[in-house]
Design a protein that fits this description.
Keywords: Signal. 36% of the residues lie in helices and 40% in strands. It is built from 4 helices and 8 strands; from the N terminus they run ααββββααββββ.
Amino acid sequence: MKVITTVLASAVLVGGLGASAYAMTDQSKSSTKTQTTIEETQAKDIALQKTDGGDITNIQLAVDDGVKQYEVDITKGNKEYDVDIDSSSGKIIEFDEDQKDDDDEKEENLQNISPAVSLDQAIKTALKSAKGTVNETDLDQENSRLVYEIEIDTADKREATVSVDAKNGDVISVEIDD
């Protein structure tokens, strides 16, 4: 009788531990399912709050070390900030502050020049050369001319960079990464 009671008590104990472990595992899976992704506007607000304002010069959603994050570039006065924000939690992953240099000033002056072709027109032109989803755009100066650099994720999981002349809207080059 004592042996049966001991066996039964052991079975109940082991079963209870197993059920507890399963419940804990099941709960951790469901909590990852319910994680929300913050919107780009929220990421901008978080970054601007960290830098006490400034001008956002670039924002993109990227995956770095397996973490999906917003990479936000901000200029304020003579400083540049890079703020990386976890897209799931909204927490700041990385924060860098640098002084502007001469190249940055040239780029800033370039940004003040109005291109003849709008960004929307340049994107439409780029998407004719490489079909997909635009993930980043930049206005740069190459060989003394304004150029839109448009990065596109293609349907076959490659990345295309299309350079569009900001003066006349012509495609300058198309580079596709393997």
